[in-house]
Write a structure and sequence with these properties.
Order of helices and strands: EEEEEEEEEE
Mean pLDDT: 88
Number of strands: 10
Largest sheet: 8 strands, antiparallel
CATH architecture: Sandwich
Radius of gyration: 22 Å
CATH class: Mainly Beta
Helix content: under 10%
Low-confidence stretches: none
Length: 175
């Protein structure tokens, strides 16, 4: 027979070895699947990751173009922080400079808190990483993050080499 207990506040003892703790015995769990546990600030709410094997992603455009490398997340909290991490294992810029940017729903986020660089005049394949923090989305609707890129001088550059993997991770962090 199931029983139900209604309380407003549960407090642990104020002194002793387990002061200010409420203990759940070994083998027992708290099931909040029918309700909501509210995370504290700084806790990871969710993480989504997308790994794709791509064909060449190239451009000679001097304006930012969509790469097709994107992923979506639906925040559970409108004031949360979305951390964005994109790993490019093999980019190639034989005669020019590749300049990447992170966009949210088609809007450039380069003015936000981002560590973004570039890859210039290299006949070798190099690894690039883009990281960013989006704390201005104010939404619980689906957000799509996509990598855009351009060629600085109009020569062909390769953001991703043929048959290379790409990895785009999005974390929601409670503010």
């Amino acid at each position: 027979m199931a029983s139900e207990l209604t309380v407003q506040t549960i407090k642990g003892p104020t002194s002793g070895g387990n002061a200010n703790k409420i203990l759940v015995p070994s083998g027992q769990t708290i099931d909040a699947s029918a309700g909501t546990l509210v995370p504290s600030a700084g806790q990871v709410v969710q993480c989504v990751s997308r790994v794709d094997t791509r064909s060449h992603i190239a451009t000679s455009s001097t304006s930012y173009v969509a790469s097709g490398v994107s992923h979506s997340i639906t925040p559970k909290f409108s004031d949360s922080i979305i951390l964005i991490h994109y790993h490019i294992p093999m980019s190639h810029t034989p005669n020019d400079t590749l300049i990447p940017r992170i966009y949210r729903n088609g809007t450039d986020l380069s003015g936000a808190t981002f560590a973004q660089g570039y890859h210039t005049n290299s006949n070798q394949y190099i690894t690039m990483t883009l990281e960013g923090r989006d704390d201005g989305h104010n939404s619980t609707s689906s957000l799509t993050y996509e990598i855009y890129f351009k060629s600085n001088g109009g020569n062909q550059i390769f953001m991703v080499h043929n048959s290379s993997d790409t990895n785009l991770k999005l974390w929601e962090i409670k503010a």
